[in-house]
Each structure stands twice: as structure tokens, then as C-alpha cells.
Amino acid sequence: PLALVTAIQDLYQSLDTDCEISTKDASLPVHKFILSARCPEILKDLGRKCEDNLEDTIRMENHSSKSVEQMIKFLYGFHETLEDSLEIYDLAMRYQISDLKEEVMRQLGEVTRENFIVAVKLAEKENIVDLTKKCAQFLLEEKDQESNYHCDSEFLTKSISTSLSITDEND
Q1: 72, 85, 134, 140: least buried by Cβ within 10 Å?
Q2: Strand, coil or helix: what is 60?
Q3: What is the reported pTM?
Q4: Backbone angles phi, psi at 89, to 5 degrees
Q5: What residues in the chain have per-residue pLDDT under 50?
Q6: Which residues contact 37 (CB under 8 A, 6 or more apart)?
């Protein structure tokens, strides 16, 4: 299997692609067979747009090229640190890439000061109860140091109350 993974990863560098994903600031070459094997939802978008589009281009202009590139690399078997967890999670949800969603959650790991805001936003946006509980637990442990968070107090207060109410309901 390692040779197969390596061969698929080598394709990422290949110039022989048959499709591209267009973001607001880049066009990223891809192989349709990788997309069809890893996330057929992307190809559904291509099929819907083929009548208007003579090229094989999938438009993702609402997403940064960095996040789309990280998603593509993940589809080719590369496992790197994901930089914009929220946007990559959105892509994983939109295109039904369950292992990418799991990877985002795995990389978030434990809630820390560095990833707290991202964790709260993701938990709130996607209604992820387990992550909300982790955020609430973190806040309970760190409540005396609230002034170290770089966010407005209204957001922090709302996050605390949301986290605590979900935690109370499920205990």
C-alpha cells in the first residue's frame, strides 16, 4: 500500500491533469479520477457547470487558494498541518469528505489558548457538542485568565454561556 500512496502523491506534481479548481487567486490542477475516488461531490459541481463552461474547471472562488490546495493535497494522500481549520472544515462539509473533517478535529486535539477561538467558532457553527464540551471545560479551567484572550468580551461571554448550557444539558 505504501507504494500506491507514493504513486498517488507523485501524481500531485504531474503536469498531466484533466481538470482544475479555480479559486479567487489561483487555478489548481487536479485529476478527475482522484476527485471521483475521494470526493464525488466535487465532480457533481463540475457536471452542473459543464453546460456553461467549456473547460473542466470547478469554481471555488469563495475559498482561499491555500485552503483549497491543502484540501487537494489531503485528497492525494498528504497529511500536513491544516492552517485554516474553519475553512477546511467548511470544504470538507460541502464536499462530504468525512476523513478530512476527522483530520481537522484530530488536529484541533485539546483546546488550548492558541486554538480556543477556532474551536469555539467551529463548535458553534457546526453544533459539535463534544467540541463545545471541551471548550467549556477549558474555560472552567482557565476562567481566571480571561483577559489573555484576544477577542471581544461579548463573544467570550456568549461562548461561555453557550458552552456551559450545552454542558449542563448533557450532564
Answers
A1: 140
A2: coil
A3: 0.74
A4: -65, -40
A5: 50-54
A6: none
- Give me the DSSP letters along 2-46: HHHHHHHHHHHT-S--SEEEE-SS-EEEE-HHHHHHH-HHHHHHH
Cell (9 digits) for 62: 469563495
* Confidence at residue 53, expressed as pLDDT on a 0 to 100 scale: 47
Cell numbers standing for residue 169: 444539558
User: Could you read off the pLDDT of 5-35 as tens digits, one per residue?
Assistant: 888 888 888 878 888 999 999 999 999 888 8
143 Cβ contact list (under 8 Å, min separation 6): none
Q: Which set of grid coordinates corresponds to residue 148?
A: 489573555
Which amino acid is residue 153, in one-letter code? S
pLDDT value of residue 50: 46
d(CA 80, CA 107): 10
Backbone φ and ψ for 142, nearest 5 degrees, come out as -110, 10
pLDDT tens digits, residue range 80-98? 888 889 999 999 999 999 9
- By the 8 A CB rule, do 76 and 9 touch? yes
In Å, how far are 15, 21, 46, 60, 88 from 55, measured between CA atoms?
17, 11, 10, 15, 25
